[in-house]
Design a protein that fits this description.
Elements lengths: L5 H10 L5 H12 L4 E8 L2 E10 L4 E8 L8 H16 L4 E3 L6 H6 L16
Parallel strand pairs: 3-4
Antiparallel strand pairs: 1-2, 2-3
Helix pairs in contact: 1-2
The structure holds coenzyme A (COA).
Coenzyme A binds next to strand 3, helix 3 and helix 4.
Amino acid sequence: MTVDDVDAAAAILAQVKLYPKSDANKRIAFYVQLPNSCCLVAEIGPDVVGIVLSIFNGFHMFLTHIGVLESQRGRGIGSTLHAELLDRANQLGARGIVVDAIFSAEPFFRKLGYRSPGATFLIHDAK
Ligand SMILES: CC(C)(COP(=O)(O)OP(=O)(O)OC[C@H]1O[C@@H](n2cnc3c(N)ncnc32)[C@H](O)[C@@H]1OP(=O)(O)O)[C@@H](O)C(=O)NCCC(=O)NCCS
């Protein structure tokens, strides 16, 4: 993904209800230019139809967002994006990919081979 894809990526995050469009552009633009980020798009012709945003911290790849346009789901786009991400994670020597998924997406990740870790996921609100 390049900065040229930021608008399309933000539109996808908004459509899949992972992030409001108003705020997503600047956050994705920030994410894409981070040196350890791995942000990929799936394209059909000139159109961006899916995205994955992730970042490598030296230990694990953290997959924070993945989304495929509703009209294009169930055609293997999400798993293709994930397969490419896994390749990149392996090339970087990552120990694994960690995902914080919304509950409705858990079956998708289980199909890809994800397991529950022996750890808990906690969050502290900022501001
Ligand atoms: C999750 C998502 C990215 C999957 O994309 P996709 O392109 O439809 O996925 P694929 O076509 O590669 O599906 C791979 C397999 O997972 C299954 N699958 C996909 N989404 C699923 C879901 N929500 N629940 C159950 N199974 C699902 C598919 O049926 C397919 O199974 P098969 O191999 O037996 O045919 C897409 O549904 C999406 O954008 N959802 C909204 C955003 C979201 O929830 N993102 C994840 C949280 S960060």
